[in-house]
Amino acid sequence: MTLTGAGVSPGAGHGPAYILTASVPEPPEDSAHTGDADAEKERALAALRQVAGELEARAARLDRPDDHASGGAGREGANILRAQALMATDPGLAVGVEALVDEGVAAPRAVFSAFAKYRDVLAGAGGYLAERVADLDDVRDRAIAVLTGHPLPGVPAEPAPPAEPGGAPRPYVLVARDLAPADTALLSRDVVAAFVTERGGPTSHTAILARAMGVPAVVGCAGATAIPPGTTVLVDGSSGEVRPDPPAEELARVAGVEGARRAALARAGESGATRDGHPVPLLANIGGPQDLDAALRHGAEGVGLYRTEFLFLGRRHAPAAEEQERAYRAALAAFPGRTVVVRALDAGADKPLAFLPPPGAEPNPALGERGLRLLRRFEDVLDAQLGALARAAASETAELQVMAPMVATAEEAAWFARACRARGLARAGVMVEVPAAALRAASLAAEVDFLSIGTNDLAQYAFAADRELGTLGDLQDPWQPALLDLVRLAAAGASETARPCGVCGEAAADPALACVLVGLGVTSLSMAAAALPAVRAGLGEHTLEQCREAAEAARSAAGPGEARAAARACLPALDRLGL
Amino acid sequence: MPERKVTVVADVGLHARPAATFVRAAAKAPMDVWIAKPGRDPVNAKSILQILALDVQQDEMVVIKAEGDGAEAVLDELASIAGSP
């Protein structure tokens, strides 16, 4: 029986299923221990110590530089886990647990109730502290799982042992309802052969992280957690098929395709281009200097999206000019003579910055003062950032381009271009994330030097579907023909005014969709660095004409599934190469 | 009881990594160690949960107290951690 979901990270993987249990049940309120209070206390404290030890061990793995997708996320993850380990062995918590056991409460319930006291304090404080409640719950559930023998929540630390003596360890197929980023950030390809989740859409954390790691993934796959643990599962991250107990010849066929795929990746040339030589610069999305190594390693021809707000999340004050200048110069210095596109601070909605507060409560933050709207309110912050960018660019040979997020009108585009020019920045652009901007792309493009389409937000606003909601994943599917229509409009508008128009959303990371975007008139593609080789290989196997046919076929389709199938039928080399 | 007054300068206040570093160092001390906001009840400096709940923000002052052999050295170390960016 084959299950089907959305393939969101290409390639095929197989291995024994590792089913992540959804939650640890709350121990019954009236559970009492059998009488030996000292033994029961020791049992509870030993469980907490065991959890702390496991969290510390995982943090230590994150410190190894090649063990995760990005050095920054790795260190960040290690910090979170070490703080959680300290929570598990907290002396105040231990006192609480012991007091409850003395009253006759069984160890699992004592742990639950002792945590509840701190949980309430943190939740009541709101803001940053309330966000720590999830960390606390995770520690609590791990300890209760140890005590009750309930399967431990959390991802495997090691691959499965070899199937036969002397064989190789077998990475798991990780199956879950949904995956927390704190869990997935820890994983490496040695441990996980593929991800399968029941929830989530193409822009979910699982999808983004899987692409960054180069691990095949299928999301939105109903019924996946019913697969018995340990069953061999074959996952096709391109077609979205998930097959338990595949026949041996099917595994062999997939291995053959996977070999062809790896060979195609290895021989792809240095510069992005179609088979008939139409150049399409392939660029990397970065969140800070820590992502530059991966960008260079995967052959990025420059940076297509520098998300500067990630440098400053969690800051109370705007960062000093020198600190900004350093972070920008690092990216420019990594790509001498190439293009580096920096996005001005994109704060608000799901990425709040303390020093750029919205003017009041917003019932719909995604429709509120975010992006350029907020920067116009805090002109000094924007001006300081543009100044730091100009100084960083002065001593480097890379071509700096600066773009504004969340632009809706030509007036806004003109305002941002003036702000850039005032700082001596030669090339200013705007992102196309709002349908209004796509519809009037020519008038926006006339005010600036380039456009860059952010497909994730464009889908969110075109379909009125919150990108944070996994249940609306179908509407955020970048293969939705209406979204492709908007991309076509934006690219055509830019072309009318002889301006380049790139795509810097996750859509560019899908080798088939990348060809379609080029066929729609997009002039450059920017994506997570790990996706670059597959996109470069897929593009290099097809002519510009084939890309245009695929784009036309996709736009003529009724829905996203049909669009994808129709486009792939026009791009025959993708299946052959397992892309 | 010997004490140190120190202003927390880290952007995140005494949370996240600074809090973890602080608690880890305090936990090594052989004696009890206390931390408080001025004029308020002290909490156990070896407890990450109590320190988080204290909610010390950037630019706020804290008082750290400990007594016994080596207390001065312990306080010096903790004050320097709390006062680091």
From TrEMBL, chain A:
Check the record and name the Pfam families matching this protein.
Answer: PEP-utilisers_N, PEP-utilizers, PEP-utilizers_C
Domain called PEP-utilising enzyme mobile: residue spans: 170-240
Statement: the UniProt record of this protein carries the keyword Isomerase: no
Compositionally biased, Basic and acidic residues: which spans? Answer: 30-42
Where the record annotates domain Phosphotransferase system enzyme I N-terminal, the positions are: 4-132
Could you tell me what reaction this enzyme catalyses? Answer: L-histidyl-[protein] + phosphoenolpyruvate = N(pros)-phospho-L-histidyl-[protein] + pyruvate
Documented EC number(s): 2.7.3.9
According to the record, the residues making up region (Disordered) are 1-42
What is its subcellular localisation?
Cytoplasm
Task: Describe the location of the PEP-utilising enzyme C-terminal domain by residue ranges.
Answer: 273-539
Name the job this protein performs. General (non sugar-specific) component of the phosphoenolpyruvate-dependent sugar phosphotransferase system (sugar PTS). This major carbohydrate active-transport system catalyzes the phosphorylation of incoming sugar substrates concomitantly with their translocation across the cell membrane. Enzyme I transfers the phosphoryl group from phosphoenolpyruvate (PEP) to the phosphoryl carrier protein (HPr).
Q: Which family does it belong to?
A: Belongs to the PEP-utilizing enzyme family.
Q: What is this protein called?
A: Phosphoenolpyruvate-protein phosphotransferase
Species whose genome carries this gene: Nonomuraea roseoviolacea subsp. carminata
From TrEMBL, chain B:
Q: Quote the CDD domains the UniProt record gives.
A: PTS-HPr_like
Tell me where it resides. Answer: Cytoplasm
Main location per UniProt? cytoplasm
Outline the extent of the HPr domain.
Answer: 1-85
List UniProt keywords, sorted A-Z. Answer: Cytoplasm, Phosphotransferase system
Supply the Pfam families for this chain: PTS-HPr
Q: What SUPFAM superfamilies does the entry give? A: HPr-like
Described function: General (non sugar-specific) component of the phosphoenolpyruvate-dependent sugar phosphotransferase system (sugar PTS). This major carbohydrate active-transport system catalyzes the phosphorylation of incoming sugar substrates concomitantly with their translocation across the cell membrane. The phosphoryl group from phosphoenolpyruvate (PEP) is transferred to the phosphoryl carrier protein HPr by enzyme I. Phospho-HPr then transfers it to the PTS EIIA domain.
Question: What's the name of the protein?
Answer: Phosphocarrier protein HPr
Give the organism the record lists: Nonomuraea roseoviolacea subsp. carminata
